[in-house]
Design the sequence.
């Protein structure tokens, strides 16, 4: 496994120094810096690059948040578990998304026009913009072609966008628990943003560094956690138990059930590592993801794809329900794309791709195998 | 139908003037006033009383929020639709729940000890307390026995509690979309309360009249609306459409999709008619509802029931999933209770009991018929 695995290389690619990087929604950024991490090495044929696209709160350091996807170094030539990335074979690349707070240009970055952080003036970013910044990173790294682009959730959106916008550069696109967001998903993201705005410390987004709207961001995260997990899992884990710290939820208004204690803990943990303005920007780009963007229709967009596409739905995911992922698979097939669909059985909800990494790795490997069979057939 | 139907009588029953009304959670209130409304008249045998128990935001005026349950006055002897309440036969009684803001003693009432509103000092109330106040109202009205007690959501909790706590006073208990709240339900209520507390206008619950934490309460209601409706309904109604007021959600952070505009509207409408402290108290009593309360076990509680019980699950309800309602029906049956279960097919989610009144009325009537068959058999 990759826990503790360090990147072979990491750094920033900076561009748009002379001319602004124009964004889909109309804004622009100048300059743009994208933090990337590389695990393993490009081979001489440069045909072993695998790009991982991270989700909402991830970073370029894939091995930090998706460790079980990597073969253990000691068994790099084929360990006992279902590793997806084997650094004796693969060069794994990941770039932190534009708008994030893990190294790439985002709302906490200094706005050269003012000398202060962008804050709420950071422009709206779409998934297409992110993919374009990643292409710049790959150009810089000398990677012309990706054997695989893989991601889950917002990462899956990027993987699909890669297959559409750069059809010649992608061999296999693997998208897990992703589809254009449904009305319920749009609703939940909206409410999360409202929670941040409700916090008086938000100050219109102009909060000083270290004094962000922590309570609002924690509440947003807690709302999100409900959509990342499943009712079944909450039932199994927490049921109607009192908070494990000894509170008595029957007695007073603010003493909690265990599930509430869990959500508060997740919120508090999150606000210590994430920026509220980044959260607004990234949930927004999750909302605006639409496969038709930039093309005459979704069908026209999908017809561009030359990669094999593997879609994986998570059985208990209610943020990106498996039916929505399956529906997307059917639209891809109807557009002539070689697309396979697998349903990953998990009670963990959307978070299944992180909570059950070994199992999802096995499913991903199954998709890779299905792809090889396709290619041979 | 009952739209515009006025109560035959309404008023307050006041008690606990000399000795405090002791509450389940340990607090007490002195005095207690309960607002009630009566539609129709008690017959001379006093055997035609039907008690309706209202849900979170309801009032004693049943005909205002459940109009289609009433036969139209012109067809009171059997109209063309599936009326549940026929005032030529039934005397319909409803009491506003303790803690509410529609006439009964609640957080906005004056605390005689201080001369100011109770606010955050209003005690924790359980469903058992509410049922006990309703029994006092019925005593006052001279009603010894209820032919039927019926309610949905928190109203269904009260109906069940009636059948347990007053086994000799209930003939038929009809509970719609109700069960002890699951961990997911507890989670969502907790987050709603946090939204209210996050609003700086909350001021620890000591906000002045007319200056309540409107934004926090609106956000709480918007979160709740997601749990009252279904993803399917949101998908059909709003899909990924832009807000109907012309906003462009692709362009800026705060321009909305249609579903977000809908939720904001629902939140704003709600905060104009409901009190934030009442919201805290009532979501809490929804949390704490537990059939075992006051008895050695749930089974012991259920074994007390002598009423016929009809449970109705709503197919798309994810706040009180039909599986939870069915599971409760099975536990009732196992405890020897004459209980039937019906699943109401609706895409409206938990709100189906309000959104599709005519259809739910037909289902309720089916339950009544099933009960009569049972009684005859």
Sequence:
């Amino acid at each position: 496994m990759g826990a503790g695995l360090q990147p072979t290389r990491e750094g920033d690619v900076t561009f748009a120094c002379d001319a602004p990087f124009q964004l889909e929604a109309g804004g622009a950024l100048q300059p743009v810096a994208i933090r990337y991490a590389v695990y393993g090495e490009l081979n001489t044929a440069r045909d072993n690059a695998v790009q991982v696209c991270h989700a909402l709160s991830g970073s370029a350091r894939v091995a930090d948040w998706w460790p079980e996807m990597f073969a253990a170094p000691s068994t790099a030539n084929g360990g006992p578990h279902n590793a997806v990335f084997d650094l004796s074979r693969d060069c794994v690349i990941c770039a932190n998304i534009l708008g994030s707070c893990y190294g790439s240009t985002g709302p906490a970055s200094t706005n050269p026009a003012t000398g202060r952080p962008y804050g709420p003036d950071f422009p709206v970013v779409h998934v297409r913009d992110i993919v374009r910044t990643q292409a710049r990173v790959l150009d810089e790294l000398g990677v012309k072609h990706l054997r695989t682009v893989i991601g889950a959730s917002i990462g899956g959106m990027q993987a699909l966008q890669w297959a559409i916008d750069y059809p010649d550069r992608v061999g296999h696109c693997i998208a897990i628990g992703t589809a254009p967001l449904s009305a319920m998903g749009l609703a939940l993201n909206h409410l999360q943003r409202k929670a941040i705005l409700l916090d008086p410390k938000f100050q219109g987004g102009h909060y000083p560094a270290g004094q962000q709207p922590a309570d609002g961001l924690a509440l947003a995260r807690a709302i999100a956690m409900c959509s990342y997990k499943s009712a079944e899992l909450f039932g199994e884990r927490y049921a109607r138990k009192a908070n494990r710290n000894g509170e008595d939820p029957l007695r007073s208004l603010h003493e909690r059930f265990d599930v509430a204690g869990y959500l508060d803990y997740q919120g508090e943990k999150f606000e210590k590592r994430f920026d509220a303005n980044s959260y607004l920007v990234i949930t927004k780009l999750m909302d605006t993801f639409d496969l038709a963007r930039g093309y005459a229709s979704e069908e026209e967009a999908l017809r561009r794809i030359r990669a094999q596409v593997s879609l994986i739905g998570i059985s208990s995911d209610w943020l990106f329900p498996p039916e929505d992922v399956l529906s997307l698979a059917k639209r891809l097939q109807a557009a002539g794309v070689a697309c396979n669909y697998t349903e990953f059985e998990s009670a963990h909800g959307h978070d299944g791709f992180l909570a059950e990494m070994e199992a999802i790795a096995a499913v991903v490997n199954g998709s890779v195998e299905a792809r090889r069979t396709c290619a041979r057939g």
Summary: The radius of gyration of chain B is 21 Å. The mean pLDDT of chain B is 94.
